[in-house]
Automatic annotation (TrEMBL):
InterPro entries: TVP23-like (IPR008564). Belongs to the TVP23 family. The keyword Transmembrane helix applies. Keywords: Membrane, Transmembrane, Transmembrane helix. GO terms for biological process: protein secretion; vesicle-mediated transport. Its main location: membrane. PANTHER family: GOLGI APPARATUS MEMBRANE PROTEIN TVP23 (PTHR13019), GOLGI APPARATUS MEMBRANE PROTEIN TVP23 HOMOLOG B (PTHR13019:SF9). This is Golgi apparatus membrane protein TVP23 homolog. The chain crosses the membrane at residues 31-50, 56-76, 123-144, 150-169. It comes from the Eukaryota. GO terms for cellular component: Golgi membrane.
Amino acid sequence: QDSGDDIEDVSLFDADDDVSRRSKKSKIRHPVASFFHLFFRVSAIIVYVLCELLTSSFIACMVTIILLLSCDFWAVKNVTGRLMVGLRWWNQVDDDGRSHWVFEARKVSAQGGKTSSEAESRIFWLGLITCPMIWVIFAFSALFSFKVKWLAVVVMGVVLQGANLYGYIRCKVGSRKNLTSMATSYLGKQFLRQTMATEDQTAS
């Protein structure tokens, strides 16, 4: 087990590797995992959007969506994250009753044989980020359209998929880094870069 203090960096959208290795990293090594990473979460969204056209039974739609969301939560948390980007997270309670977040990252061998595929990494992170945003939109839509009966289903989607998103972001950035400070640092760098670009244009 590796705590959050010992986490290998896994490529998100940047291509930091050499050009000679890019062709190998662009291949999808785990097509089944990549398929099911998107299948359950996309299916839950499709059922939610089309449920009123498919059936008039609210209970059947609700149970189907919750089952799909539960399968997605388990698959992403335990299988696809480990295979596609080499990350895994969970929460455990010690003997004193205290809760601990545990983060694992795949150890990269000296030969680089366990580096993650860039294509799989993009599929993983795009699916992980996009779908919770869609459920948040559904939540506001259900709230403002007074569809109270759907609000519980939508909140379930936000919570389950948001939990996976939060867990894997913590895996990516490391438990010692505060997400707020990371965002502030990123915005500061962007502001400094724009300021320098403006000064260069003025000087020229």
